[in-house]
Please model this.
Amino acid sequence: MKYGYFDDKNREYVIERPRSLTLTGYAEFTNHSNYEQDQVNLQYSLFIGRTLFAGNRVVQQVHGNLDALPPEEQVDGKIVTERFFGLSGAPVAAYCGDKASFLGGYRSYGNPIGVERGMENELSYNENACGALSCVLTLEPGESRTVAFLLGEKYAEEAEALLSQYENSAETVAQELSALKEDWEGRLSALQVQTPDPAFNSMLNTWNAYNCYMTFIWSRAASFIYCGLRNGYGYRDTVQDIQGVIHLVPEMAAEKLRFMLTAQVDNGGGLPLVKFTHNPGHEDTPDDASYVQETGHPAYRADDALWLFPTVYKYLTETGNTAFLDEVLPFANHGEASVYEHLKRAIQFSLDHLGPHGLPAGLYADWNDCLRLGVQGESSFVAMQFYYALVIQKRLADWKGDADYSAALSAQTETYSRRIQQLCWDGDRFIRGFTEKGERIGAAADPEANLWLNPQSWSVISTLADHAQAERSMEQVHARLNTPYGAELMDPPYHAHAFDGALAVIYNPGVKENAGIFSQSQGWLILAEALLGHGERAFEYFLENAPAAQNDRAEVRVLEPYCYGQFTEGRNSPHFGRSHVHWLTGTASTVMVGCVEGILGLRPDLGGLRLEPAVPGSWKEFTMDKCFRGKKLHIRVENPEGRQSGFHGLWLNGEALSAPYLPSELLKEENEVLLRM
Ligand code: GLC
Model:
């Protein structure tokens, strides 16, 4: 019999005979749905589990022995749970429900005996379970077949029904995949850009947006590496994460924002941890021993509620829904007030917690979990956030015609601007604050940690820094903190000169808060440079830590090529450039804001949309399709002179406008916008 022929063109022997292939699918089940029980109570989680074979699937039963009870009847709060791993589109040839039997002694995922030798239909009973199924496919030359492996948590009837839907696997899988793609494309369609940079397009249009969605929806529970099973939402990260999706799904964002506002205590502070069982109006607070005991969070953080300002402002301006300010929402503990009043209280919280110099106290932490400045120490970062809060609140007060309050806010802005300037400017940088003993942190003369990133970028974002200060301190950042993988949080790392409260010293140098490169801070850096009109710098900072731009260094970065991590190891680590802690709250959203408001310059305000891109000079042209307040904008940016920023002309539906600003009342359903830089 002739099995093949020699293909002259490709110079290879093409074998043409039927082939019999064994295809094996494998998935692991947790023993118990409670990950903590699984980790710390292995004896228990093993002895409630077993697997069965049911023709086209391996079924794992948790508490299977309760199957004699009527459905839903519980013993000690427990019922039978069933997970399955099934095969559709071909008959099962062999199966295995026991992890150790599938892998084989002294073997690993690289050479499981269940694949090498084949499976012998073992099941598990008090062991770690798995689902493994194989089928044998005989293929004629050129033939292809599709089968589907399905994993789920369903009882028999539903599992059967699901598996039967995939009998015609190729077609069903293709349909499901295209429905999934369509769903995601729909979610991401509110902003799509085409710039000359493929990494930027891929991050902004798809992967950073996806990352933002995931952390927004799952919060920290989605992070395998960071408190996978947490008892609630962290205040600051969750409020920051809302900013990452406001331009995509404003109403979904608003729901979470309302929720977080109800987690603000009536003294204006945020609950450091908002329980998953959060019951607005009835919660205890860090002032109650019960809260501390239950959450493990002993005190307020200085920054939590201040994150509400940029987030609420972004929601109001993106949607134009200023009525949101008048919505009445409960406080976490008791009482209720309008959103506007919630914001007032957040300001009051800072005013009620000032340190000896009259700057906001650092309390249990500010943004930096490793700075414990207490009630006597003070944080310049929080001072700048506070200053920015006053600026935003004044815009809102003016919008509402709240003249007395607006005047009071103006006076406060003056006072704090002067105070922060006097106390925190150190010639060429802003310091990081004061220790409980009143010593300056981050002054030029300090032997360690004498230059900090966040006070420099936030001096720009908050509008506190004057032009000369901004240029000077941001230049310092570039010269001293920047690296090919992003800018370090501070330099040099703490080792022998950490003050009490500089907890970063517990980490290896170059790691985490001890001079690691934080994605969050990188986002603020991108934004700050863009606000200064420095398109090249902003983009340089974007590229340094954009996952999509590091595929030629994947073995250095290690983390998935589409996800931001909490931090990248800095120059002081032997693994400089390696990134960690993916899918973490508060990591993807600040970069998104840096790109959207910063580089793309899409900056809504209460009356409309400001368009002030800050891009590399090489971007001669790019387009942005954006939904804004229910209207469609097709924006084309032309940059024939290769500028980094600046305004030359703006045309809305053919009409010239005098500033880089689209007043919302001029917008039609569909709009053609041309911006010339
Ligand atoms: C982590 C935390 C975040 C904190 C940051 C800096 O990313 O999730 O809340 O602000 O570390 O300490």
Observations:
- The mean pLDDT is 95.
